[in-house]
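Researcher: Next sequence.
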Amino acid sequence: MTATWRLAALLLLGTALPGRPVGAQAMSAADSARLRTSALIGIVVDTSGTPFTFPAFVDVVLANHPVAQQARLVSEQARAELRQAWGAFDPKLMASWDQKRYAGTEYFKYFDAELKLPLPIGADVTLAFDRTMGRYFNPDRRTVGNGTFSAGISLPLGQRIITDERRTALRQARAARDAGDADRIGILNKLLFSSAKDYGTWYEMWRRRAIAQEGEALADFRLRAVRQRVANGESAPIDTVEALLELQRRQVTRFETEAAFYVATLNLMAYLWDDAGRPAALPENAKPVLDGIGRGGIDSLRLDGLLALATRRNPDLLKVQAKVQQAEAERLLATQGLIPLAEAKLAGLAERGSDAAFFNRERLDNNYKAALTFSTPLLFLKESGKFAATGAKLEFQEFERDRLRRDVEFDARAAIFELSNLQRLLDRQAANVRNARLLRDAEQVRFENGESTLLILNLRERLVLDEATKLAALEAKVASARGALALATGDRTLITDQR
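Model: Next structure:
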């Protein structure tokens, strides 16, 4: 007997997995039936556990994840800044009291009160009350009786007639609010894309582990069957080495898939937080399922609509559009700087307690205050420089908007194509798995009839395992592809689109 045959006999008689004695003892009929059934039905994925669907996972992520909370705060901050810009139009009440007394003599007492009402058109309405008392005061501050009421308006006549600093700030704040809303959507979509990708990886690793476990179980049963065949003189003892080697190979694969599944589970748990803002764990015995994720490709009839949606709702594009609006506001204000500054003020006066109508024309002809101011630079160096700078800034943002619009369209087209291509790949890969199983099942029959070798049978079964693993990887990519489409279009409902 050669050394090889002696090694095979030793393995046959004494090398068994712990707790699984072999040798002259025949394998039970139940084990034989299970071996044959397992070999013929293909890879059976473990269905135990509680389904943790992707929509349920997304609900938890969007509700409690710190990044989702930060996205909400970004939008709130932008809205607070808009409210701050509206403050320039807030009515303002002012009052002052000024008194001087020296060496027993009362020089003066001044009391002034004013209510200013800014108007959105750039004008200001002013209501005021003045009262002066004492022996020594400025003559222009003299008031009669119990004080003087005034009601007037100030109007820009040149510069600032179309816009001014406060209207420009309000317009920019509105654009910033829109940018904040877009930023919130963008942050949430990126979080959703990342979570969809990691959920797909979790699903793939779960499938890989189940496939590896089933493959190991098949190799284990086959090793026991081969040992029985060797004991009965139906196979060469060297087949035991082949069967044991295949079992050990699949055990290594199972160890690797279990480690990968553990890491994927940890990555997924990083997205889970509870209502109190504390890290949360996965539900007990949770398992991934692809229910709730849009599976099919995108109908070609929807292509134009999705591209239009991408250019209309993509968050990055909306933020650039907001920057364009802000630059336009700055440009318009800089244009106003090239016009001389002129302002007219007119106010009617009335004595406190007077019975005459305040806006009586005859009375107002003799009781009013009026002012006209005018100023202009001679060379407009500062104003022309600002005009040129704001023009360049606006043009820069317009170029950025056009470039990004093109990039968004390409990203949307790529995501749509990837989904369509994935659907074709899934159909073809499912057929590959079926054909690989047919070949393996046929080879199993030939092996049992003594027409094939264990090596060829193992190769056929490896092909089934490899093709099933590829199918799981493609199924997991659907989640990432759907997330990429939602990221490109700005519509996260496309992740679960079933149309």
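Model: The domain at 27-82+168-325+396-496 is CATH 1.20.1600.10 (Outer membrane efflux proteins (OEP)). Confidence is low (pLDDT under 50) at residues 1-45.
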